[in-house]
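We give this protein:

***
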Amino acid sequence: RIQMDFVYTAYTEDRRLVKGRVTAVTEEVATELLGYGGYRVVTLKQTLPLINREKLMSRFTRIKPADIVMFSRQLALLLESGTDIVTSLDLLQNQITNQTLKRIINEVASDIRGGTSMSAAMSKHPQAFSQIYHRAISAGEQGGNLEVVLRQMADYIEKSIVTQKQIKSALTYPIIVFIVAIGVVLILVTKVFPTFAGLYAQFGAELPAVTRALIGITNWTNHYIVYLLLGIVLVVGLIFTYIRSPAGKYRW
């Protein structure tokens, strides 16, 4: 059957008023799911299947690794203090400013209310939680040390951020030099060499083979520069596509 989204307002067991979203087949099932989670429903309304501006904007908001680090540490702190997972997620959801992550946390909390484990709920959102992340969470759930695993994953992501910054810093200078070198070669081939080629042609002198080859390459480039640029764009596109594939990503 088709799953539907419902927006609810409910009271918790300690009389706190909370709002959120739950996914269920029918309104009755949604009420039962919330009841199992310790919520007494005040209002429950199905969301219309039209364009949701908040949800649409969240699709284009990138989740930064630092957001996951902060989320992991805060969740570990709340769980350590004795707060249950669903309540912890609800509290964190209200503090998160990233709309994409906020929507994902809401969906994870809804899945947990429906009886899904946190690791399984997180595995549905690879744009936020990597494979190693939700598998580590699964190990933490089975071992009963979820808070420790959350902090370990936060440390791991932080180290990954530092490593990525170092790699980018190391590659920035060679990439700039490479781009400048290509620009200089293009200027030489399209502007400088043709001038000398015309000068040599006027003299009628016998040119060395290397010089004739260079002039030939220059003439060919000037005639087919558009096709050459299109070819470069095509090659770069193919390389980019390959890098995004599993095998290409591993080798990159």
